Amino acid sequence: MKILLAEDEKQLSRVLIMAMKSVGYDVDPVFNGQEAVEHAQANAYDVMIFDIMMPVKTGLEALKEIRATGDRTYIIMLTAMAEIDDKVTGLDAGADDYLTKPFSLKELLARLRSLERRTEEYDSDVLSFGDLKVDQAEQRLASHNSMSLSGKETRLLTYFILNADKELSTQQLLNQAWDRDENADAEDVWIYISYLRQKLQAVGSSTIIDGQKGGPYQLSQPA
């Protein structure tokens, strides 16, 4: 998983980075809420972990700004504030989970593993972007009409929708849809991008996937 970590306590940040990288996660560290917003807007993440008390912009302010853009990435808040009202405020603002400082690294890693399993096994929502809908369980694409998708097309388009308007690298798409298949490469991604473009046109969607062979690629809607 690719994780954005916003934590201004440098020592704690280093410990968290080491722990998450030791189990194979890719971590981008930032040290204030404004940097968190900018990274969230520019990159695709599977999870974001935000401290609440940060300089320039608090974690709560960053959370609200990111959610206002329609970003649905799973967000865990870290806080020294253990009052129920603080947690309710964060959850109502769009946070998905809370960890109260001091917390156990084992617990944080267990929660990330749990999230990874849930994403892989139980993600059956119908996602939408613009005039486009993707039913992940039925592997079906719909706009003015509908048609079936392959499993790999479904996973690719789901990832595009969850990260709409962001540039996604070929490697990110390989990680998401090819299950760490070492034989898959940029040519495979390009072929499936071509398939998806044809299907978007076939269902009459105005949504487009920008990008040349080799990437990066971006799902967007013309203004």
TrEMBL record:
SMART domains: REC (SM00448), Trans_reg_C (SM00862). GO terms for biological process: regulation of DNA-templated transcription. Residues 2-116 form the Response regulatory domain. One of its GO terms (cellular component) is cytosol. Residues 124-221 form the OmpR/PhoB-type domain. InterPro entries: CheY-like_superfamily (IPR011006), OmpR/PhoB-type_DNA-bd (IPR001867), Sig_transdc_resp-reg_C-effctor (IPR016032), Sig_transdc_resp-reg_receiver (IPR001789), WalR-like (IPR039420), WH-like_DNA-bd_sf (IPR036388). The keyword Ribonucleoprotein does not apply. CDD domains: trans_reg_C. The modification 4-aspartylphosphate is found at residue 51. Keywords: DNA-binding, Phosphoprotein, Transcription, Transcription regulation, Two-component regulatory system. Residues 124-221 bind DNA. This is Response regulator transcription factor. It comes from Limosilactobacillus allomucosae. The lineage of its organism: Bacteria, Bacillati, Bacillota, Bacilli, Lactobacillales.
